[in-house]
Amino acid sequence: MTESREQTVARVTAALTGKPSPVAIHRARKIDARGVQDHFWAVSDAQGVIVATGTDEESFESACRSVGIDPADDNAIIDAGGRVLTPGYVDIHAHGAWEKSFDDGPDGIDVARAGHAVHGTTRQVLSLITNPVDVIERNVRNVRAKMDERPDILGAHLEGPFLALARKGAHDPECLKDPVPELVDELLEAADGCIRQITIAPELPHGIGAIRQFAAAGVVPAVGHCDADYETAKRGFDAGAGIMTHMFNAMNGLHHRKPGPIPAAVEDPRVTIELINDGFHAQNPMVKLGFGFAPHRIAFVTDAMAATDCPDGAYKLGALDVNVVDGHARLVSNGAIAGSTLLLEVAVRRAVIELGFDASAAVEAATLTPARAFGFDKPNKVTGAPLGLIAPGYAADLLLTDPATWRVEEVWCAGRKLK
């Protein structure tokens, strides 16, 4: 009997608010940022942390016993049967799925997270769109509360209101602001430490100062939705911006006499560069070019909105009407691209199958690189165990994937079975 989406949301939410269990997987083909290994196994404990990995069966049996799993019990062991085992995907820029956005309150967060989780996105930074400041503050408080309930929510990304009018994309121009210090303080206070990332146009009158202010508070500012030239973008990165928001989109393009912000990000080893690999936001030749710009620093993101994993039709992006045709979302008012309907599962699949990327590099772009943008590749106060690799000490965020189609078949987040 097929599970309804309502049942899926309830089950995934219950799993994420519940306790982890030991997990033992063997006979897998491990692919992560460190490379490929066949005949691989991984075992995690009751805290949702990987305790051992390897390739020899005797050590696997010993590791199973160490966490209370009987290696002779076929019902307790997951036989991967040669399927691909990767770390869980980490999406640091997404707005929603399954007809809900992360701005839609606690229930909306549960629904949209389930929509991404069953496709392998085990951890997510919840992106909130430009709204009146009081609405942004309410929405960021909802994210803060959810972080206390479950491990999969890493915090909030404020995509606005500090964007350039000329590069606003699908954001409401009536709500755009200059990031004066008082407003920055107000948002930081409302967030109570849950803002991970904030997109800022550095050329705004208080843009560079706001980047410094947010960075000093532990937030990672991102340069994006900007009309900045090369020098201004460089100043933004020097002031503390550590991310470029969806490279190529909502910013000056590459020009041989007007370099713009992209070269400033590419040449700076401190900067993680987001890339939407859907073939629409950036067509395939530009995805290939962009992926090669900064090895180990390209993070696949989805920028997914509420229509993700849904049929074409009419949807909302905040208060704005959106029409989705052939999976592409555009504002009804002016035809501007209004986010994507991409899943990280699809971004990785496209990279490996359609674009011919090295599988380890494609997986890295959806796992270790986005985790590293916030220091989540090391032990930290938010996730505890680090994210992004299948190795002892790392979180038991695990995906079993069909090697032919790269469709995610089984999902664990911190030792909690989601699919």
Automatic annotation (TrEMBL):
Entry-linked InterPro entries = Amidohydro-rel, GlcNAc_6-P_deAcase
Recorded hits in CDD domains, A to Z, give:
NagA (cd00854)
Ranges for domain Amidohydrolase-related come to: 84-403
Presence of the UniProt keyword Hydrolase in the record? yes
Please provide an example of a Pfam family that matches this protein in its UniProt record: Amidohydro_1
Entry keyword set: Carbohydrate metabolism, Hydrolase, Metal-binding
The family line of this record is: Belongs to the metallo-dependent hydrolases superfamily. NagA family.
Q: What is this protein called?
A: N-acetylglucosamine-6-phosphate deacetylase
This chain's source organism reads: Bifidobacterium miconis
Query: In the record, what lineage is assigned to the organism producing the protein?
Result: Bacteria, Bacillati, Actinomycetota, Actinomycetes, Bifidobacteriales
